[in-house]
Amino acid sequence: MSDALVRLYPAAYRVAHGQEIVDVHREMTAGLPRPARLRADADLVAHALRVRLGLDSASPAGRFFALAAPFALAAAAVSSGLHLTRWYAELVLSPAPVWVQLSVMGGAWTLSLLFSLLVCLGAIIALTGRWVPGVGMAVCGLLGRAVLWTVAVPVPGEGAVAPVAAALLTTAVVLACPADRRGDRWLSAAAGAMAAVAWFPVVVVNTRAFGVTTDYGAWPILVLAFTGAAVALRSRASGLRELGAMAAASPPLVAHAYTNAWGDLRPALGILLLLPVMAAATVACQAVRRRR
User: Fold this and answer.
1) Is 177 exposed, middle or buried (0-12, 13-18, 19+ CB in 10 A)?
2) 58 phi-psi bin (left φ>0, alpha ψ -120 to 50, beta other)
3) CA 238 from centroid of its chain's CA atoms
4) Domain-by-domain residue ranges, the chain?
5) Which pTM value belongs to this model?
6) What pLDDT does 109 receive?
7) Orientation angle between helical segments 185-206 and 107-127, nearest 10 degrees
8) Rounded to an integer, what distance in angstroms lies between the CA atom of residue 271 and that of residue 252?
9) What's the rounded Cα separation, in Å, for the pair 91 and 34?
10) CB count, 10 Å around CB of 78?
11) Residue 249 has what pLDDT?
């Protein structure tokens, strides 16, 4: 069986590592029950496809998505968290009794909140050390909301195209992370801190505890951009790869800005300019540092 599975690898990779893969796979699966062997075969197939697509941990693309995945999870958690807290703020601030508001909630809105909660909990679980179950929960929430937006009437002010595209892109980025680069502690901690800083001030605004009515979604993207610059400065890199990873992680926040602006592209496009501007500033800063 392992000989047939190894054929999924590119020819050059098979020549260099094929026999070693077959021997290790046979040794690992010897004596295992059938369900465990099937899981091992599935892992081998997944690795072969990653190598064929250039998404293994040794490839530039694999390293790129390993950097982007924690921040994509964090961005999805920020977007979903803002969705939940905006609903909660409206629930608390409304003059109508809470039980009356809950009784008239539609099924689509309830499912949307539940899927958002899944994304938030999954991101927290993944970024605190249990990557596989956390990502599974978050992806279920993302895909559930994408399906819901596709088949149900969108919430007023929220078009379906941007959130669905953001959910699918975020799912792809997270799942593209190589298996042996998942759950990096430092990147997970940085992504978690980014999510907290991006989420809390907007919640304060939405609860009317501060005298600003809206920021059109600029604050979370600004925090993401500064986080990318900080990661680049810490690793003494040029900043292009780090800010590129932040761009790959940004779709949930861009979709949030777009829907908050009632489908107006101008605020979202203006916010997107933050990332290349920050990349240019980071490159300039690193050039000045190297000259000293």
Assistant:
1) buried
2) alpha
3) 23
4) 2-53, 68-291
5) 0.82
6) 79
7) 140
8) 13
9) 51
10) 29
11) 92
